[in-house]
């Protein structure tokens, strides 16, 4: 059977698969609430690499860079994941109608991803979608909006005080370009997205990048990824384990780029080290 990802209502997606879904780069454009029904979900960013399993829920803040992958369990149990996309229009409308309490400091050391503990409101929310995901039918439009607002309310009732994060509508401001790129070079996203996340227009980003690194962004990214690949391979990692983590589109692209840079394929790196 083939993996599939399909909406059960605008803003609510159900993913199911019997084969491993490899790591993909994601720029999370809107807040997301994800719940694992079965199988495993891997989320990998600059601060953590975590596997989420059946019954676990996670919130991801918008404008966050992350790699995600999912896989079934041995024995044939597929991965099943429910995703709520909480866009700014939904949240602005909710804020106008309900005037949520924005007091409180929110979670400390927030890095864009919050693992949420079991909470009755989440159980009720995700359980109410069972009949739709199992039958493959769409949620009626009037109920769809209600479910999205229920997801917002469940997050607001959660003890972690997420309101100030959920209702933050500010766009990224201009930040330290060098520090950001050194943290996020492994994400294979368009240069224009790097520009947006550092608070710059594309032309300003390109100009500032050359001032900081003395080469273009595209040249620097491939060099930085290959340098890191070399270090990981020396440490014993395999090419098949690292090429996606470092932002290469596929294994053949990685192998060609590595050979062009170092003169030999990545599989031979340990043969080239001094005795």
Q: What can you tell me about this protein's structure?
A:
The protein has 275 residues and is an alpha+beta fold. It has two domains: 4-166, Jelly Rolls; 177-272, Arc Repressor Mutant, subunit A (Orthogonal Bundle). Helix content is 40%, strand content 23%. The protein is built from twelve helices and ten strands. It has helices spanning 88-98, 120-127, 130-135, 141-157, 163-166, 177-184, 191-197, 202-213, 217-234, 239-242, 251-262, 269-272, and strands spanning 4-9, 12-17, 21-28, 31-38, 40-44, 49-53, 57-60, 64-71, 79-86, 113-116. The strands form two sheets. Strands 1-2-9-4-7-10 form a six-stranded antiparallel beta sheet. α9 (217-234) packs across α11 (251-262). The longest helix is centred in the last third of the chain and has 18 residues, at 217-234. The model has no long low-confidence stretch (mean pLDDT 92).
